[in-house]
């Protein structure tokens, strides 16, 4: 059997690498239109893989050029494969109808047209990208009207991996979801895909549903997860006013088995490519189906997240005597969570832009994110917001450092924006000595030892604590 995946990103790359590792007899080709990305996936030096994900390099090392191939030749991969995964990006639309809300499906549609045009036999098409409900229907319509007599089955097989733990999540998922038509051909296609996953995942964890349930389950899962974070973050604001401690509350409620302990960590706000995009998508869908109350319910999860990010930036400015103009602030962490180099929708981008809008000088350090990515993120947000800052100002106000100690030298304040483990082990005494006084620290992830910092002499603000 031969399979291919269109889109060598954070989802397609790791997912297909693990399938190739677990199924040595299946030829897996990952294709992408981005030549640089494919070149990096093929680099001899595994440190140059385009995605940083613990354990990924070992998987790629094992399977690459055995039964795992990375290529830009989309056409040949489509022609030779029995199963084609679509894992291209589906960003929020930035233009026209549904701007700022709906998922932009142009890349998915392009894939469908290309498959219809090139296929030389029957194929199973698998939606891996998160898509609005009923997208499979659109893909099917395109395939049907453009096909040259070939038959296609379209399955929905959403990915639940979280970045930073992708390989672990793929090895040992809570469940795999496969949705397909409830016709004999549809059920046969579902079974074909089930058998691939069943090589390493117990069958009872492979759930089979109709296509729409599968598509909607993905949006719902992400909306519920994000909702938990917004819920605990809303309580963090109340804790800061009342003297309660948000961690103690998370522990107290999390031990109730009906609530559960995961995803209750208060933070500077959730980021990542999925949560905001998927909820906006859900909101758009609800409005489309004339369910404004349901739409508003979910929209509130995003509003609360925006509030949390704003609140954090405002707290820094207010604490630094209501102005940060000309002051130096070190930002530790730029990725949207630890153990990834992904920065999409990272709270750090928002906080940094709020601070430089107030003319602060920012010194950034992140263990895995490149300076170019940081400037790119800021240029993007600044050019899409109402501000009198000019793009040239960014490189004057923002400096990216390769070592943390350099980034924190002579600064007025430090803000922790990503929960990288290494931050806990820094020599905070030495850092304190090299800072301006009063030495402020704003822990947006609550990872540092407050008592130790206070003893050294820091002025400490931690999210969710008075
Ligand atoms: C993507 C979607 O954003 C997400 O909704 C879905 O759940 C999984 O797939 P991700 O893998 O993180 O997530 O996206 P990204 O890292 O941007 O990778 C997508 C890749 O598709 C890019 O490398 C892009 O070059 C490629 N692509 C895009 C194509 O090969 N062809 C296209 O027509 C469009
Ligand atoms: C998420 C889903 O978890 C995954 O199932 C889906 O396939 C893709 O979207 P991901 O965005 O990669 O995965 O990471 P996740 O661990 O969910 O974290 C998302 C954001 O929430 C991060 O910014 C993280 O720091 C934040 N977060 C998470 C919190 O602030 N508190 C928590 O308790 C958990």
Distance between the termini: 59 Å
Number of strands: 14
Mean pLDDT across all amino acids: 95
Strand portion: 5-15%
Helix content: 40-55%
* Side-by-side strand order of the widest sheet: 3-2-1-4-5-6
The rounded Rg comes to: 24 Å
Q: Which structural class is indicated by helix and strand composition?
A: alpha/beta
Ligands bound, unique: uridine-5'-diphosphate-xylopyranose
Shape: globular
Observed structural traits:
single chain, 466 residues, alpha/beta, six-stranded parallel sheet, 18 helices, 45% helix, globular, binds uridine-5'-diphosphate-xylopyranose
SSE layout and pairings?
Blueprint: E1 2-6, H1 12-22, E2 27-31, H2 35-41, H3 56-63, E3 68-71, H4 74-80, E4 83-86, H5 106-118, E5 123-127, H6 135-146, E6 152-156, H7 166-171, E7 176-179, H8 184-197, E8 206-209, H9 211-242, H10 246-254, H11 275-288, H12 292-319, E9 328-332, H13 347-357, E10 361-365, H14 371-383, H15 391-397, E11 398-400, H16 404-407, E12 413-416, H17 428-433, E13 440-443, H18 450-456, E14 459-462
The structure holds uridine-5'-diphosphate-xylopyranose (2 copies).
One uridine-5'-diphosphate-xylopyranose is lined by residues 6-12, 32-34, 37, 87-90, 107, 110, 128-130, 159, 273.
């Amino acid at each position: 059997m031969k399979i291919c995946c269109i889109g060598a990103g954070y989802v397609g790359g790791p997912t297909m690498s693990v399938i190739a590792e677990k199924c040595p007899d299946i030829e897996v080709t990952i294709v992408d239109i981005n030549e640089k990305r494919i070149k990096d996936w093929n680099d001899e030096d595994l440190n140059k893989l385009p995605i940083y994900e613990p354990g990924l390099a070992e998987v790629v090392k094992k399977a690459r050029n055995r039964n795992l191939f990375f290529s830009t030749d989309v056409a040949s991969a489509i022609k030779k494969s029995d199963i084609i995964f679509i894992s291209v990006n589906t960003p929020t639309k930035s233009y026209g109808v549904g701007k700022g809300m709906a998922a932009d499906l142009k890349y998915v549609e392009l894939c469908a047209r290309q498959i219809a045009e090139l296929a030389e036999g029957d194929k199973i098409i698998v939606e891996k990208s998160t898509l609005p409900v009923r997208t499979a229907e659109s893909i099917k319509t395109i395939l049907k009207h453009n096909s040259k007599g070939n038959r296609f089955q379209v399955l929905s097989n959403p990915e639940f991996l979280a970045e930073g733990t992708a390989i672990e999540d793929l090895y040992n998922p809570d469940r795999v979801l496969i949705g397909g038509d409830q016709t004999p051909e549809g059920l046969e296609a579902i079974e074909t895909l089930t058998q691939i996953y069943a090589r390493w995942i117990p069958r009872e964890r492979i759930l089979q549903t109709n296509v729409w349930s599968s598509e909607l389950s993905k949006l719902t899962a992400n909306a519920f997860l994000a909702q938990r974070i917004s819920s605990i973050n809303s309580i963090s604001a109340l804790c800061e006013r009342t003297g309660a401690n948000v961690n103690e509350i998370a522990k107290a409620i999390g031990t109730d088995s009906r609530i559960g302990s995961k995803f209750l960590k208060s933070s500077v706000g959730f980021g990542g490519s999925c949560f905001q995009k998927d909820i906006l998508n859900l909101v758009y869908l609800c409005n489309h189906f004339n369910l404004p109350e349901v739409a508003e319910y979910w929209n509130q999860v995003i509003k609360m997240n925006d509030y949390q990010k704003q609140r954090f930036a405002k707290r820094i400015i207010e604490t630094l005597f209501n102005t940060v103009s000309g002051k130096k602030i070190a930002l530790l962490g730029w990725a949207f969570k630890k153990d990834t180099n992904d920065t999409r929708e990272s709270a750090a981008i928002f906080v940094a832009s709020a601070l430089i809008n107030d003319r602060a000088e920012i010194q950034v350090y992140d263990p895995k994110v490149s300076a170019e990515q940081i400037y790119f993120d800021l240029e993007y947000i600044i050019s899409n917001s109402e501000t009198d800052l000019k793009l040239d100002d960014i490189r004057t106000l923002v400096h990216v450092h390769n070592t943390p100690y350099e980034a924190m030298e002579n600064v007025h304040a430090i803000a922790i924006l990503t929960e990288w483990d290494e931050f806990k082990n820094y020599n905070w005494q030495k850092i304190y000595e090299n800072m301006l006084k009063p030495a402020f620290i704003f822990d947006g992830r609550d990872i540092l030892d407050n008592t130790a910092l206070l003893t050294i002499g820091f002025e400490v603000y931690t999210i969710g604590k008075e």
